Amino acid sequence: KQEVTQIPAALSVPEGENLVLNCSFTDSAIYNLQWFRQDPGKGLTSLLLIQSSQREQTSGRLNASLDKSSGRSTLYIAASQPGDSATYLCAVGSGGGNKLTFGTGTQLKVEL
Amino acid sequence: SAVISQKPSRDICQRGTSLTIQCQVDSQVTMMFWYRQQPGQSLTLIATANQGSEATYESGFVIDKFPISRPNLTFSTLTVSNMSPEDSSIYLCSVTRGTGETDTQYFGPGTRLTVL
Would the pLDDT of A71 be above 90? Predict the structure, then answer.
């Protein structure tokens, strides 16, 4: 059974800092890995998707990496802003990618 | 991308009653997914709903408790039956768009359920 863990559970940083969120998974036979953002009272917003054959994906200030052999992914956020404050979830896709196993989430707060 | 709406956005219900949550997608999809997010927890997949067939439930979830309908390719409902306070959660529906490994899941805004 796939288990996904995220560290740290919560993080508070001053505006402008670069930061890294970590995600680890127990079964390396994944289809893909997706990073989401969840804002209070709202659904999830897809940030980045990394296919199993890829090592990283970039979108704006976000960069996600994937190391299947070690069962790890990182989400790098450059020059953090207060608007980045949210809970970040990683989810590992299996069963053709349709079945997602979610991590425990990292609650990020970026302070002025 | 996909535009997904859910109704209701939130509700407060009494123990022993049932609530039906609706999910509408802006275009046709083969599979729709229902997730539960209990307070302070991450998301757990309840079931996968295919049009024209019975939903497939994950371990720990049963049809009698969470009956699902999928009458067409853009709509699904999830009913939370005989509710107890332990059912207080956010319920989210999602769909997949893409091809193969690029399949991306998109989520609705969620339904926040409180059971008293």
Answer: yes
